[in-house]
User: Fold this.
Amino acid sequence: MPDHDLDLLFRPRAIAVVGVPSTQEGPPFPFFRGLLEMGFTDETSEAPGRLYPVNPKLSTYQGLRCYPDLRAIPRPVDYVICAIPAAAVPDLLEQCIEKGVRLLHLFTSGFTETGDAARAELERRIIARARAGGVRIIGPNCVGFYRPAARVAWSPGFPREPGPVGVLSQSGGHAAQLVREGGLRGLRFSTVVSYGNASDLNETDLLRYLAHDPDTSLIGCYIEGPRGGREFFPALREAAARKPVVVLKGGLTEAGARTAASHTASLAGTAAVWDAAIRQAGAVRVGDLEELEDLLLARQFLGRLSGRRVGIVGAGGGNVVQAADEAIRAGLEVPPLPAEARAQIARFTPIAGTIIQNPLDTIAENWSEAFGDTLIALGGTGAVDMLIAWLELGWAVWKYTGATEARIAAAVAQLARARTETGLPLAAVFRAPPDPEAWAHYRSLAARTAALRIPLFPSIRRAALALARLAAWPAGGER
Assistant:
């Protein structure tokens, strides 16, 4: 059963950041800046969301009163972020117990993951004392949690809008990349927890929490080695029976397992064992962080697909040949275009410079009516279950004819029209070259497609693989 107390942990009313930098030069400490951006304020506020910096060398930090320790804070504190050396953590923990703190996040590292016996023993003593004192711990050696609805973020620049995706990750870097890159494409999150060494709260606890969390309808996991022992797979099975679950397992090679032991003190396992266990649990395993991001995005916007037949519209002969190969390799089907559809498309697509087949090469500009008409004609054949619009040459056209927001908006309008008129799931592909102007247009395009719940992918390979996984999703996980 889920630990319902975890919901209270992830909804703090007051947060103390212990160990803010002694120098105030430069940007604020990332934890502090993230919380300020999300809306936590100073102690003069009557509303929940009070933020307390702690450093005995400072009287103020970033315009807020700074306290020498937790005991000096005059009001209750729910959540403490610890960024002080490992040797100072036991005293901080005693302050947390005295203060009635619910959750202590140990950003601090230098414990079991070092392989040093004395440091491992220090970690064990801290956890034992925390349990006796009623304080839950995230970490050590992690970046904590991000929950937009509670206005909590460990870094600036995270989306403020909540969404349906819950994530648990032993790696803080993976969690941050997923939030930043996925957020740009429209992923929105209920709760993201980086839990590091998992000495107290572990992936089993978090899976059970997310499985029953009403704000979460889709779960992603990055796991190096489950610290919940034998309870992990029953928890995974329980979660996958209620909601779609995607798992990225780290440390499946000998070298990866060695690194995982140093990273988060985790024990890894063989790929075959994990493949079988994840499949039997009803979850889906992915091979890397890109696949995890892509599949969560596709599932958030498209749900489960009802077939494998794909229709692809692109620009450039080489592109559509590659698209066909990538789709087949991913496990999709690429049916030929019926003769009546080819005749219909030929009425508004010149024969020269095009391939009127599936995949279809068209010289119609992405923002023109002809591009939308082509997608609609292909989708209306009854021969395909989904559409991919590859805007690969869109950048070249936009670059030399003057890319404008109006043209980008028009391109997205054609995608929306095609989806509405065909009633088919639709994904878009746009590969921006390493050019600042191109990236600005990519961000605009990503924001517009996300607003319409059209997943945008940076390559045809990634789009095809994500759609193929949606079409092959195991039964269950639909409550």
